[in-house]
Amino acid sequence: MGLIPAEIKVNIEGDVSGALSALESSRGALTSRRIWFAEDRRGAAEGRVALLDNGVIVRFRLGGAPEDLTVKLRPCDREQLVGRFSDAFEAGPFTYRIEEDWSSNGRVLAASLLRDCPPGTLGDAVEQGADAAAAMDAVQDQFLHACAPSVPLDGLVALGPVLSTKIEDVPLDDLKADLEVWSVTGLEFLEVSIRVKPKDEDDRETFTARAERKQRKLQEALRERGVPLSEHPESKTRRVLTALVAAADRPA
Asked: Where is this region: Disordered (predicted)?
């Protein structure tokens, strides 16, 4: 495996609408969707996020054309990514990515297998009482069994929805950023992200230095516009999943 892209993320919370205004979000292309995450049914009933604790994320995104189902390992090790999953690929409805996630919490390796689905395909999987694991394709099932064989995938429950509004290719100085708002159970976050791809002539040191420069530029562009950066130590996904599990555990 050679050099891989880096996705650089910054989280913002508090005055999200004010941040969107400051970032001139109306200049980007907008997509609204509903997101569910699958978790171990028994663990969720006990207030735990067992899949996430084992580095596995199963995400459904509905409301777009197409819908999609993603299974992701984050964090993971290169040694986990075996066979056909040792390199990125695109084939039919599948997009398999290997990249580094950079944030204020550090840098981790992530591998994700996304499957595009026709509209209306995934609704049954997120219904109350459904087994969310049944919606996974054989290739996604193979990915998890090959690269995370110790993680049990029987009896998953979908938690959500998280309301997502994504605005793509918003210009921030000489950067193009994606903005995504997540709203759920009293929490609201804005994630600002850019993706840095290796160039043919890059070695590891050159690529890392270029990505670090872009990370600084992103942070500076936000601060110059008066947008405060979140310093919360937990990831957005963990905070949202923890909130969804807590909400599901409350009596009606």
From this structure: 205-235
